[in-house]
From TrEMBL, chain A:
UniProt source species: Spelaeicoccus albus
Record keyword Cell membrane present: yes
Highest taxon listed in the record's lineage: Bacteria
Main location class: membrane
Domain ABC transmembrane type-1: 98-310
Entry keywords, A to Z: Cell membrane, Membrane, Sugar transport, Transmembrane, Transmembrane helix, Transport
Protein name listed in UniProt: Multiple sugar transport system permease protein
Residue ranges with Polar residues bias: 1-10
Cross-referenced Gene3D superfamilies: MetI-like (1.10.3720.10)
From TrEMBL, chain B:
Keywords: Cell membrane, Membrane, Sugar transport, Transmembrane, Transmembrane helix, Transport
GO biological process: transmembrane transport
Family per similarity comment: Belongs to the binding-protein-dependent transport system permease family.
InterPro entries on file: MetI-like, MetI-like_sf
Protein name: Multiple sugar transport system permease protein
């Protein structure tokens, strides 16, 4: 703070030296510049983020009713308070889909973050050979779109096509990737496959920022690699871990492409398997945009509360 | 400074090596072994699709998945993919390039300008604007897609190139990164010097700001590129006409027909291979740029 104010006054005095008028003109330009620079982003942001959010919230409170047998007597819409929310929350399948995503997240997110951390530490350790090659291999799936990754894995899940199921059969195992009890974890596998390398790279970036002196000091003190990982690396990569966890939580509640694509081979996935699939079905199969809007708002609120709660929790722990 | 250099070079390295080399070799073998196993997990599905794309539909079901089939049908399959339905696959491919390429370029530029403005100027509303945008990072993209469709269909924009392109131009996370990076790297003194030389604020951004922020811009560009390329929900909601489809939507469209027409197995596996290979190469080449900017801003 103090630094900023001193440089500010220094600049002002310099302006005063060079005469009044240019200083004022320049001041105006400096005042206008940030808004000019922000304008394109802000306009698009308002148009594609804020406006839809307001529209969604607005239409989630509206009830549209059609009069006449086939709606031929016109459409009336009225303010309906929380009717759409009540309807969404009374829908057992929608609520079940949210709980399903909780279960999914509680299992999948920690597995993925731990795996990403371990891989990052191994790749950055002195014992790793060809770290660049492995890093590229682990990161590769991130470049494959979720839909295509799911198409890929669905081939590996379907009996008759899957060499994995064939190989398991030779060993006397009968695996079913698409049953009602297992398909959720088959989706978890696709998500883990897609995003572990990406999270690993964020963690590696943070690891690279640890100053070398810290390692030197630890080595001089005779610390083992394990001790260095626990006492230096993990505490210092905590911000990256928080970031990746928050993104994973948001990602979990947004899950859509994987279950939607797997639906065609897995009858266990119904049209309301995840919250997003629910909202999509409500909007486009049942044409009930208002309840769908309420569902979208509920998903956003849950994602917001969860990621915010997690940030608060980790902040409290560190302070 | 001087003590650090003293301990590092003469004393540290040479004495350690002979003592620990046995243990070090053992741990190298273990660590590399783990990395190989994990690497197989990540690579095998891609290997499978390569093998599958070389097979006829009969071989796909009749022969072992990880081995090659009786006939090598790769060229036949790929030709089929490229020519089917008047070359619609090629069109999807170029649609994807249009959405992802143009979208991420412009998104990066807008995010850079915004992030730079928030980092380098003190003005009223600075924190409010930033808070609003940060909130945008946390809002699930899919929550906005449905209302965006309603909005766009009222404006007549749904089912056009614009309906996918416009939302792709906004990257709140990119702006967030640019703001951190600009605050840490763009020098106030240089900006002031440029001002005294008579350069306008916008020109200072283009010459000084953009150049200094290049590492962060590469990261933002790559993020947005992959994000748009991978986006499925938005085009699915927006587009009804297959000629506007990106590649992801097109392949899903083919996959959903395999139950009626088994020839679509060949088309889907061939199409998946064609879309995975260029991306795979791009990933291998680009991944080293990935770390730049992500945390660099927070270091300095």
């Amino acid at each position: 703070m103090s630094v900023q104010t001193t440089t500010g006054t220094a600049a002002e005095t310099r302006h005063d030296d060079s005469g009044r008028r240019p200083a004022r003109r320049r001041g105006g330009a400096v005042r206008r510049a940030p808004w000019l620079l922000l304008a394109p982003f802000l306009l698009l942001f308002l148009f594609t983020f804020i406006l839809p959010i307001i529209t969604a919230i607005g239409s989630s409170f509206v009830k549209v009713s059609r009069s006449g047998l086939f709606g031929e007597d016109g459409v009336t819409s009225r303010f309906a308070w929380f009717d759409n929310y009540a309807k969404a929350l009374a829908d057992g399948n929608f609520v079940a889909s949210i709980w399903r995503m909780f279960l999914f997240g509680i299992v999948q997110v920690p597995i993925m973050i731990v795996a990403a951390t371990v891989l990052a530490l191994l790749l950055e350790s002195a014992s790793a050979k060809w770290p660049g090659l492995f890093r590229a291999a682990f990161f590769l799936p991130y470049g494959i779109p979720g839909v295509i990754a799911t198409i890929l894995w669905s081939f590996l899940y379907v009996p008759g096509l899957s060499p994995i199921i064939d190989a398991a059969k030779w060993m006397g195992l009968d695996v079913d990737f698409l049953g009602s009890g297992t398909v959720l974890w088959s989706i978890a596998n696709i998500v883990t496959w897609s995003y572990t390398g990406y999270n690993m790279l964020i963690i590696i970036a943070q690891l690279k920022s640890i100053p070398g002196e810290l390692y030197e000091a630890a080595r001089v003190d005779g610390a083992s690699p394990w001790r260095i990982a626990r006492s230096i690396q993990i505490p210092l990569i905590a911000p990256a871990l928080v970031l990746t966890t928050v993104f994973s939580i948001i990602g979990t509640l947004q899950l859509f492409a994987e279950p939607q694509v797997l639906q065609s081979v897995a009858p266990a996935i119904d049209s309301q398997y995840t919250p997003n699939l629910s909202a999509y079905t409500t909007a486009f199969s049942y044409n009930d945009y208002n309840v769908a809007a309420a569902q979208a708002v509920l998903i956003a609120v849950v994602a917001f509360v969860l990621s915010f709660g997690f940030l608060r929790l980790t902040n409290r722990k560190s302070s | 400074m001087s003590t650090k250099e003293l301990t590092r070079d003469p004393a540290g390295q040479p004495t350690k090596k002979p003592v620990k080399s046995g243990r070090r070799r053992a741990s190298t073998i273990i660590v590399t072994g783990v990395l190989v196993v994990v690497g197989l997990y990540f690579i095998i599905p891609v290997y499978w699709v390569f093998v599958a794309a070389t097979k006829t539909t009969g071989d796909l079901f009749g022969t072992f998945g990880f081995g090659f089939g009786k006939t090598f049908a790769l060229w036949h399959n790929l030709g089929h993919v490229l020519s089917y339905d008047g070359g619609i696959f090629v069109r999807w491919f170029f649609n994807s390039i249009l959405y992802a390429g143009v979208g991420s370029l412009l998104a990066t530029y807008f995010a850079a300008a915004g992030g730079y403005a928030l980092a380098k100027y003190k003005f009223r509303g600075n924190n409010t604007v930033f808070g609003l945008i940060l909130g945008g990072v946390l809002v699930p993209g899919t929550a906005t897609a449905l209302p965006l469709f309603l909005l766009f269909s009222q404006l007549g924009l749904a089912n056009t190139y614009w309906s996918v392109l416009l939302p792709s131009l906004v990257s709140p996370f990119g702006l967030f990164l640019c703001r951190i990076y600009a605050a840490a790297t763009v020098s106030d003194a240089l900006m002031e010097a440029a001002r005294l030389d008579g350069a306008g604020e916008i020109r200072i951004f283009h010459t000084l700001g953009l150049r200094t922020m290049t590492p962060a811009l590469v990261t933002v560009f790559l993020f947005q590129l992959v994000g748009i390329w991978n986006n499925y929900f938005l085009p699915l909601v927006m587009l009804a006409d297959t000629k506007y489809y990106p590649i992801t939507l097109g392949l899903k469209n083919w996959l959903s027909q395999v139950n009626r027409l088994p020839e679509f197995y060949e088309l889907t596996t061939g199409g998946v291979l064609l879309s995975v290979v260029p991306l795979g190469i791009a990933m291998l080449v680009l991944q080293r740029f990935w770390r730049g900017g992500l945390t660099e801003g927070s270091v300095k």
